[in-house]
Write a sequence for this structure.
């Protein structure tokens, strides 16, 4: 599996993440929770457990998806059947 962020400057990732976090109301101290998701396949992103976590995994997913979109990287989730 190739790294979807290959060739993207660290500063560009930081800016895109900051803009996406601000847009979605994610506090700046949670941005580092999003960083690992940017390099993982979407299928491996955590889902909401219904336990009232702060931040909720769904918030992290939204910010990660917005960040990748800002960087021009696709976010495609495979269907259950492949």
């Amino acid at each position: 599996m190739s790294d979807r962020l290959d060739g993207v400057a660290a500063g560009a990732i930081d800016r895109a993440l900051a803009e996406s976090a601000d847009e979605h109301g994610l506090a700046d101290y949670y941005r580092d929770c999003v960083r690992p998701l940017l390099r993982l396949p979407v299928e491996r992103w955590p889902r909401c457990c219904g336990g009232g976590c702060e931040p909720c995994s769904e918030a992290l997913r939204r910010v990660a998806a917005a960040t990748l979109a800002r960087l021009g990287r696709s976010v495609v989730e495979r269907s259950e059947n492949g």
Remarks:
- Helices lie at 10-23, 31-34, 57-70.
